[in-house]
Amino acid sequence: MSSTVRIVHLDPDWFGTVDGERRAFERAFESVAVEAVDVSPEESADDVARRVGEADALLTHYTDVPGELMDATGCSVVSRYATGIDGIDVEGATERGVRVTNVPTYCNREVGEHVIALALSCLRGLPQYDASTADGEWEWDLVDPVRPFSELTFGFLAFGNKARAAADLANAIGFDCVAADPFLDDEDVRDAGVEPVEFDELIERSDVLSLNAPLTDETRGIVDADVLSRMPEASVLVNTSRGELVDEDALVDALEDGPLLSAGLDVLATEPPSASNPLLDRDDVVVTPHAAWYSERSVEALIEKGSEAVVAAYERREHEGIVNPEALE
Prior knowledge:
Blueprint: E1 5-9, H1 19-28, E2 32-36, H2 45-52, E3 57-60, H3 67-73, E4 77-80, H4 90-96, E5 99-101, H5 108-123, H6 126-134, E6 153-157, H7 161-173, E7 176-180, H8 186-190, E8 195-196, H9 199-205, E9 208-211, H10 225-229, E10 235-239, H11 248-257, E11 260-265, E12 285-287, H12 296-314
């Protein structure tokens, strides 16, 4: 590689420009070239590699980065400008000495607020009321039941930063909050004003179940027909994590036949979804376009924190955004 650090952004259409990243890296490196390569989901790793050429760092929002792409580009850093790292071969990166980064804390508040917004919309039947009113009706008793939030339990599957932000709000509103997270000590959960429970109890008690777990082999499809059937009557499912956590066919059945009252989904198994996805044409489902992370503030924080992590990883310095610190050695 030349003395100029070459950084390639694989998804420049995400913000429409890489000017923010360019400014951040120009402050950090004496000589840097920040380039953009629009990648389509249909392109293979070989196709992407031919277009990218050599690079010191690859930045991606949603494009997968397998080991073959790391080899072909010779990169030393792969950065996911988001929180989730599914689609990046972290194990393969570590074996190659490639540092992988993400941005774990840039949108905690935004996602927490979105979780609550989806939950309250579902519990109060806002989509049903809106659709009915648009059809010329004026009926207040369309949704049953509508219950005080103080009588309901708000559950979290995984209790990381974003779930904690949502729990702060849920507690303030008056919900009883519970969480299941096998990676946390019970005391850590209690310190947030939330009751720690096991997975089965979480499912059976949660009037609102918020999915906040990362997508892994263990969590893929974790919310299946059996889990949905064990949720309380007239309960609500909220997912702001990854669509693949949920069996969507089973979700439709649970909405049709019970026990679910409604669902609030910021993520789907396939994004963007096809027009034929049955979840899109229901008054008892609120769907937003993977927007829970978004605010003007979070965009600025994503670029700033993401760039800081890339620089630290390139220079082999410790940083909270480095996913595989063992690759620093």
